[in-house]
UniProtKB/TrEMBL annotation:
Residues of the whole record sequence present: 9 to 288 of 478
Gene Ontology MF annotations: histone deacetylase activity, NAD-dependent; metal ion binding; NAD+ binding
GO terms under cellular component: nucleus
Binding-site residues for Zn(2+), renumbered to this chain: 146, 149, 170, 175
Keyword match Nucleotide-binding: no
Similarity comment text for this entry: Belongs to the sirtuin family. Class I subfamily.
Active-site residue numbers: 138
Cofactor note: Binds 1 zinc ion per subunit.
Organism listed in the record: Pseudomassariella vexata
Cofactor annotation: Zn(2+)
Superkingdom per UniProt: Eukaryota
Location of the Deacetylase sirtuin-type domain: 8-270
Name listed for the protein in its UniProt record: DHS-like NAD/FAD-binding domain-containing protein
Lineage: Eukaryota, Fungi, Dikarya, Ascomycota, Pezizomycotina
Ligand binding (NAD(+)): 36-40, 46-48, 118-121, 212-213, 236-238, 256
Amino acid sequence: VDESTPPQTLKDRSLTSVAELIKNGGARRIVVITGAGLSTAAGIPDFRSPKTGLYHNLARLNLPYAECVFDISYFRENPLPFYMLAKELYPGKFSPTISHVFIALLANKGLLRMLFTQNIDCLERVAGVPGHRIVEAHGSFATQRCIDCMTEFPDKEMREHIERGAPALCVRPECRGLVKPDIVFFGEQLPSAFFENRSAPASADLLLVLGTSLSVQPFASLSIMAAEGVPRVLFNKEKVGDVGSRADDVLCLGDCDSGVRKLADELGWRDELEQMWRDL
Ligand code: APR
């Protein structure tokens, strides 16, 4: 299907017609955009959900305001709160959810054009989404470096420092700057991969939005870059952004794992999906 094919519209605004579109080959360049809501079922709190969200539970770090745990200028002054939080969030003790596996299944079927994630937990990779189909727009814990001279810091030693809650310092004796995982902090640029792939939603023939409040730019703008007439499906506990305002938008409100399972049922992929998840 070449990129000039006009988008096929949905019969009606239901997961049944989204499944129809996929089954009849009308969606082969699917762009998926995700946030922390995708990983809450894995045990990783999101940021803004009332009561459970991280930003409501950082009182123990007595920060001037919640977001500054991810603020680069605050980190320079006081890296301890981030290192304490990093210990709770560090990859290794969490497993992908059925929603992560659904995205990997789309990739296996050659239907995933690109996944843009805001998450730093690397669970998309663990679920089997190929690296070249993932844009980790807010970075991840996978690598780390000195924030002054950008020299990389060894993974093993970083894990030890995070375990101890002790900020790591640059390996270069003449520098000794603070070391930070390659997570995009407020005040930092997004990785170039985000800007290089930013046009992908414009050529998508289906957009799936899962588990994000669409409250942080420039990431949130991805959702409005889908062309008119291209269906946008929201799997989220609440309505967010402008999804729902276009004629072909489909709102699947509730927890994303149930929504994804419902779509898998409509597609006839449910057994394959559950088996893939069990085989992880
Ligand atoms: N199923 C569906 N939706 C869920 C679930 C779930 N199991 N759990 C939470 N949600 C929804 C919440 O209702 C909320 O709308 O997911 C959304 C999570 O929003 P945020 O907590 O704001 O997380 P996110 O959108 O990823 O935050 C964006 O903010 O702090 C920065 O850089 C950080 O990447 C993060 C960015």
